[in-house]
Task: structure prediction
Amino acid sequence: MSERPAPGGRERGRGPAHPEGPLPEGLLDPDPSRLDPGHPLRDEILRRHRAAIEAGERLYEDPSSGLWVMTADALWRRSCCENGCRHCPHLERG
Result:
């Protein structure tokens, strides 16, 4: 059975997307569609996200669910998987 391309014609998670450079500063904070600006734990989520990036970690623990979340920096180095990642740097931003 072969894997089908993801919506929009891209293949899911295939190869690095941006291996040649660092994540731009403007893509550190998640898009409001992925993390509501009114979320009660937003400040703590952003603090943990930035701390993980500064420490060179690819994941951080979500304070509300206890699940591990990939950082924008880790996602920057791969193609979009179309799974709705909180810190997806591949979203078109207005």
